[in-house]
Structures are given as structure tokens and as C-alpha cells.
Amino acid sequence: MKLAILSRNAKLYSTRRLVEAARERHHTVRVLDPLRCYLRISAGGFAMHYKGKSIAGYDAVIPRIGASITRYGTAVLRQFELMGTHTPNCSDAIARSRDKLRSHQLLAAQGIGLPVTVFGDNPDDTDDLLSMLGPPPHVVKLNEGTQGAGVILTEKPSASRSVVETLRGLYANFLVQEFIAEARGADIRCFVVGDRVVAAMRRQAPRGEFRSNLHRGGTASPVRASAAEQATAVRAAAALGLGVAGVDLIRSKRGPLVLEVNSSPGLEGIEAATGVDIARRVIDYVVAGCPAPAKGRRAA
């Protein structure tokens, strides 16, 4: 099959592994920088060019869209969809996952456990907003932060108010959550492909840090996710419409709680920690989802 991978850098580990896995299965694969794709949209059809040449006829496209280019990247992916190309993660699903507030609302509507979350805009309501959450510690998160950036732990009511007021002064979009102390700075990344968890790792925050992200110095080790954790991860990915996702969970007294659902999860840390060939699982899943070779849809 003819596959495309939307990625800004073909040398990135995750992109390179997907290319290797596709070629090992004798698929044609090309890495496309989404910022070099440009679109023609008309009532007569859809077309796309890449570095001066028309691109069409791809059976499937695998998005590896960074958070900084979400708007443009999802527009390019949507154009592929309109041209009849299959994708495991559609543009709307990626947009849902990148908006923490929206994704939390959708997960909660499905009865999926998550830390209690509050959101408000008016400074006059700050005290009552925080009272809806309960006493600190609180976790303040930028709505579109990634890899632990824009996540702040506040341990006193005055600190929570101060951070909230500062972020409002910067016109930042943020939400506030309860702090789950029993997690002890650890979370579980479940890598979901289709309707199952194909690998899971435990990430532990370094001493003096509460964020377990590997980019923040966290350490990773393989873990066997429980049946409840696996079911929660699969449900969370499905609730946002994602076929491939990294679902971050924490273990709490009331069961697994979802912290975040990542639509472009990295492969390096979890492949190294678990030894699972996740790239192969992703390629096999994507190819299996293609109903027939793409011919394009009303290309202009």
C-alpha cells in the first residue's frame, strides 16, 4: 500500500520507526512535512501540492502532528480525509485530544474516571471556583500544554489564587485539578492501538518533582496494566475517536484516573522500556483499516 506520514522531521525516532516498519512489510511510504503541504478547496473537489508537485492516491496517512502546528496540521489531515485517504486518527479527534478542557468533558460524559477539574473565567469567582475543587494541593494546567510544560503544583490556597490570577492576567487558557497524592509522582502510559493496549510503562517522577514526563527527567519501566486500567485506556481513546493513542493514567483510591490522551504518542520511551515493536503494531492496524486502494476523491 501507499502510505504517508505527516511529520516535520523524518529523523525523529517515532517517524523513523514507522517508516522502517512500513518498508519491512513492503509498503511504499513517504514522510511529508505538513507545513509544506498546501491545499486547493473548491466545490468541484479537493487537491493538494507538496513542494511544487501534486500529491494524491495515498491509501493511508499517519499523522505525527506536533502541538505547535495543530491548527495547520489538522487542516492538512482533513484535506487528506476529504480526498478519500484513510487515517487512524482523524483531524477532529486530534483537535479534541489537544484541548484538555474539551477532552475532559467528553471523557467525563462517558463515565471515565479523571481527577476532579474546575474551569472559570471571571476573577470575582476564583474563591468559589477553588472551593468547588476542595482544599489544596491543586494542579494548574495550561489547556494546550504538552510534555509537562505549563503544569504547576500549588500547596496553599493563596498560591492557587495567585497562579490563577497571574494566568488570567496573561490571557492564558487553563484548568485546575485535584492533586492525587497516592499516585506518588507516578503514572502509567498505556499505548492503545485499535481496541487493545499493546504496551504499558510506568513513569516515575524524579525526587522533588511531581511530573513524571520523561522529558522532565522521569524514569520508565515496563508494567502490566490491570484489566481495569486497560479497559479505561481503550474507552478513553474511543471516546475521543482515536485509533492510536497514548493514554496516561494514575492509580488512585477510586480506581484508574485519566490524566491525558495523546494523539501523537512517542514510541522511543515505551519501545525501550517494554521491548514491544509498537511501530509494527501501528502499521498493521493502519493497513488493516484501509478498505481498498485509494483513488482520491474528486481531485481538482
Give an account of the 3D structure.
It is a single chain. With 300 residues, this protein is of the alpha+beta class. It folds into three domains: 2-95, Rossmann fold; 117-179, ATP-grasp fold, A domain (Dna Ligase, domain 1); 182-277, ATP-grasp fold, B domain (D-amino Acid Aminotransferase, Chain A, domain 1, 2-Layer Sandwich), CATH 3.30.470. The chain has nine helices and 15 strands. The protein has helices at 13-24, 70-82, 91-98, 100-109, 126-133, 157-169, 227-240, 268-274, 278-288; strands at 2-6, 28-32, 37-42, 45-50, 53-54, 60-63, 117-118, 138-142, 151-154, 174-178, 186-193, 196-204, 219-222, 244-252, 255-262. The strands form four sheets. It has a five-stranded antiparallel beta sheet with strand order 13-12-11-14-15, sandwiched between helices. Strands 7-10-8-9 form a four-stranded antiparallel beta sheet, with helices on both faces. Strand 8 (138-142) and strand 9 (151-154) form a beta hairpin. The longest helix has 14 residues, at 227-240. It is globular and about 55 Å long. The model is unreliable at 294-300 (pLDDT under 50).
